[in-house]
Structure of Leucyl aminopeptidase:
Amino acid sequence: MSEALLAAPPENAIPIRLAPEGGVEAALAGLPDCAAAYARAMGFSGKLGRWLILPGPDGAPAAALAGWGDAKARARTRFALGAFAEAAPAGVWRLDAPELTQDEREEAALGWLLSRYRFTRYRDARLADARLVAPEGVEPERVARIARGVFLARDLINTPAEEMGPAQIEEAVFDLAARHGAAADSIVGDALLERGFPLIHAVGRAAARPPRLVGMEWGDEDAPRVTLVGKGVAFDTGGLNLKPGGSMGLMKKDMGGAANVLGLASMILEARLPVRLRVLIPAVENAVSGAAMRPGDVLRSRKGLTVEINNTDAEGRLVLADALALADEESPDLLVDMATLTGAARVALGPELAPFYTDDDALAQALSEAAQRVRDPLWRMPLWPGYEPMIEPAIADLDNAPAGGFAGSITAALFLRRFVERARAWAHFDIYAWNPKAAPGRPKGGEAQGVRALFEVIARRYGGDA
């Protein structure tokens, strides 16, 4: 995939010119007369996302026009060059756009790569071999490293649960660890009880495929500790609180938190950031059988807090709780968890804008600034203390599913915060991990959300080349 972004331009690279609405004539300056005449004859307007290949005297492509719209349209659309990247014919292309800023050039290069992603596990959906010369000031390997992490997350999410169960999630962790010389291990089945992870065991014990906690560690032991925890529910039926069919159809993506964490870990490992990286993924399947946990059960967590189960479909926070408790025992410098946790987050912010929660104002500001800079949208949500009583039932320390449905994403975040005490900074991401419709740079299907912003923050906070 990295070869799709070239470091040095060959002499025959075909230029791509950005043509804003009202500025098409300026974009045609210096091109062969036949190319300019063709653009005029086609009535090309420069509308954002539209493109046109211009022929030279011999009929071969002399250039391409990429509609650049106006400022309002560009503010509403990420990776606009991706519309052309998807359709570009084979060849080597170069971006002839000196008006772009450094950040915009990087976005264009990344958008080229992200738009050319296709999930090919079950059918051939490859695109023509169209490559882009890295724009001036853009390091191609750096951009490709980020794209590879995104592609890893997308591939894992897009794979159906039949072939992406807890064991296959474990295999993905071990494969990533092997590629980068990291140590990996797992705790499987009833051993979870013996090792002190009762919530992970309770969620996964009803499934034919046993639950597990998968871990990976890499880096200098004296380096700052960065720990990533990802929800790895391979498929979520809802348990005894069974989901209706319409809500179950996309549940192969309920391991999107794990996939995103692995995508982020891939970026960190490839960049060799100077951190002590730890990854923890509770990998389970929330199924229905005689062994399933029941509404009304009270379970004891690794931390010792008791949890009343008022809805077996609120299982993600349970598996995260045990994993967060383990992660917190090491007092990491930064602890991040990512999960496809609540429908309430989608109601509040929709599928594109991922909410995050943290008590650390400096971290929140860094994440918000990075999200804007790299076009990886995030929005800080409040850990509102007034809602704490909602997660405190009468007979246990915590309630996994407060009645009423109000503030569902916030109460889930408050629940998770009860399992984090020692970490110097903690952030929780309630992501969707799915593109419900195709857009430039974002094909329909599994998606990485928040990881590019996180990678930027981690690299800047601890030093290193993002």
